[in-house]
Amino acid sequence: MLRSVDTSTPNVPRMYDYLLGGKDNYAADREAVEEVVRHAPDTPFLARENRAFLRRAVRFLAQSGIRQFIDIGSGLPTQGNVHEIAHQVAPDARVVYSDVEPVVLTHGRALLAGTPEVTVIQSDARHPEDILTDPQVEKLINFDEPIAVLMLAVLHFIDDADDPPGIVARLRAAMAPGSYLAISHVTADFDTDNNVRDAGAVYEKATYQITLRSRAAVTGLFDGFDLVSPGLTTLSLWRPDDGTIIPPNADRQWCYAGVARKAT
Fold first, then answer.
1. Which residues are paired to 97 by β-bridges?
2. CA distance 223 to 39
3. Where are the alpha helices (DSSP H) in 25-123?
4. Which residue numbers in the chain have pLDDT < 50?
5. What is the CA radius of gyration of the chain?
C-alpha cells in the first residue's frame, strides 16, 4: 500500500529534484535545500555532477555489453534517465527503477507507461531481497546474465546499523559474473571547515538522514568487485567526457564515485 504524501517533512527525492531544477517539490523541500546550500554552496553543482556521473557510467556499462540495469534509490524521473541513456547505445536494454518513496512510483509509472522494457517498483534499499524477488523484476531481469546495479547517492542515506556492506553483499550474491556495481557516496574526508557536516545535519529533519563515510568505508562497499579505471575517485574525475573543463579542487569534492565489476 502506498503511503500518503507528506508535504510538511523535507523529502529526500523531492529535495534532489529541487537541486536539479525540477518542479516536483514542496515548500518544506525547498526550504531544507536552501539551508543545505547556505552551509555548502556547491551542493547544486555536485547534484548536477552526480547526474553527469550517472550518464557517463550508464554509457560505459552499455558500451561494455550490459543490457540489464537496476537503479536502486532512483529518485524522481528527470532528464537523462537510465533507460534513455542506455537505449542510445542498446535499444534492447532493460531497466528497473526502485525507490521507497511513493511519489517516485507515481511519477515513474506515468512516465514509463507504454515502455515494456522498463519498469518502476516501490522497494526499500535496506531490503534488497524484496527488490530481487519482486515479480516485475523477475519478469524483466535475468539474473543468470550480467546486470548493472546502480546505487547513486543512496547508501549514505542508510545508517551503519542497517549494514550497508551487508546490503551490497546480498546484491552481489545475486549478480552473475561480469555484472557491475556503480556507487556515489558523500564524504567528510575533505571537510576542513565542517560545512559538509553542517549541511548533512539539515537532513536530521528530512525523511532520511545522511551518514558521511570515509574513502576506506566507501571502498569497502565494493568488496567482491574489481574497480574499473580510474578506481574510486570524485564525481568530476570519473571518466570525464572529452573537452570537459575540470573544476578546481575536483580531487577534493565531497562525493566519491566508482564503478566495479564482479569477476567471479
1. 71, 120
2. 33
3. 27-39, 43-63, 82-89, 102-112
4. 1-2
5. 17
Q: What's the first-to-final CA gap in the chain, in angstroms?
A: 38
Dihedral pair phi/psi, residue 185, rounded to 5°:
-155, 130
Q: Rounded CA gap, 73 and 97, in Å?
A: 8
Q: b vs e for 87-123, b when ≥16 Cβ sit within 10 Å of the residue's Cβ?
A: bebeeebbbbbbbbbebbbbbbeebbeeeebbbbbbb
SS (H, E, C) 243-261: CCCCCCCHHHCCEEEEEEE
Q: Give the contacts of 217 (CB within 8 A, at least 6 positions apart).
A: none
| Cell numbers found for residue 166 | 551487508
214-246: pLDDT as tens digits? 999 999 999 999 999 999 999 999 999 999 999
SS3 of 183, please? Answer: strand
> Which regions of 153-248 does DSSP assign to beta strands (E)?
180-186, 226-227, 233-234
Q: What's the confidence (pLDDT) of residue 4? A: 62
Residue indicated by cell numbers 531497466: 95
CB atoms within 10 A of CB 200: 22
Output the nine-digit C-alpha cell for 1: 500500500
| Residue the block writes with cell 539551508 | 35
Q: Which of 232, 248, 245 is nearest to 187 (CA)?
A: 232
Tell me, letter by letter, the H, E, C secondary structure of 100-162: CCHHHHHHHHHHHCCCCCEEEEECCCCCHHHHHCCHHHHHHCCCCCCCEEEEECCHHHCCHHH
**What amino acid occupies position 117?**
E
Beta bridge partners of 150: 71, 182
